[in-house]
Structures are given as C-alpha cells and as structure tokens.
Amino acid sequence: MIIHAASHVDHALTPAQIAYVLARYEGRAEFLRETIELPDDLGTVPCGLYGPLMGDAPVTDADVTLAPRGGRAYPSRLVARPTRPTRLLSVIAGPHEGHACVLYTAFGGPLAPQEPGDPTCRDVPTSTAFWSGHALAAEVAP
Asked: Do 112 and 130 touch, CB atoms closer than 8 A?
C-alpha cells in the first residue's frame, strides 16, 4: 500500500498511525474497506460521527446544518459537537492508476455509508436512511 497524490489523509492521523496502516496492509493488491483497532501505543484518532452507530440517539434535522465540507460540492449533515477520541480506524484502499494498492482514506471511527449527495454513492436509499439519523461533528470555535 502506498500514499498517492489522490490519497485523502487529512483526518488528523499522526505519521506513526499512517506508517502503521501502510505496514499492516503491505503487499495488498485488492480493494479493502475495513475498520481496525489501533494498538495502545499509537494513541487515538478523532471521530466525528454522531448517531446510533456510535451509541447516540438519532441526530434530528433540528440539530443539523447542511454544508459542504472539505472541498466537496455536496452538503453534509453537520452537528455543532466536538469530535471524540477513538482507537477505531477505518481504512479504504485499492488499486489506482496502475498501483496495486493506494490508501484512499483513513479516518477515526467505524465505517459508514457514503453520503447520499456523493456522486460516487452506489446505494442512495441505504445511504439516505443511514444519514437521516447520523451527522458529522462540525466543531464550533468559541
């Protein structure tokens, strides 16, 4: 597995955490989408997901702001809450531009469906159902 210009690795992972992921999946040559637990010595990563998958009550529309994030053209469901530390790290990687395995992204927390507004979303009904009760942290500056 390699880091590529197309890799999205701006989810506050440390260099040691990224090195761990690269080493763990060394030699992989197929698509992967999984959640792992980081070893204790690698610390935690921030998780911005809120909703039932995280053990929370569903996030209602009254608590949500719809806004694009991270340069995306579509809006995300955002909630004015802080990220939470977790040892769970979701990793998505696969073949790209002739490379056997490129790290597409890695982020804190469990895997969730693509957002329904994502033009690459393959299952809009499942995505819409999931995101109707979940949202991402949009930490508000004091």
From this structure: yes
What single-letter DSSP state applies at residue 20?
H
Strand partners for 92: 33, 105
Q: What is the value of pTM for the model shown?
A: 0.86
Cα–Cα distance for residue pair 68/62, rounded to 1 Å: 18
Residue whose token pair is 């942290």: 137
Q: List the chain domain ranges.
A: 15-137
Residue type, position 1, single letter: M
Q: 40 - beta bridge partners?
A: none
Q: Convert the pLDDT of each residue in 34-78 to its tens digit.
A: 999 999 999 999 999 999 999 999 999 999 999 998 788 999 999
**Cα separation, 50 vs 136, whole angstroms:** 6
Parallel, antiparallel or unpaired: strands 99-108 and 84-86: unpaired
* Distance (Å, whole) CA 41 – CA 38: 8
Query: Residue 128 is encoded by which pair of tokens?
Result: 């819409």
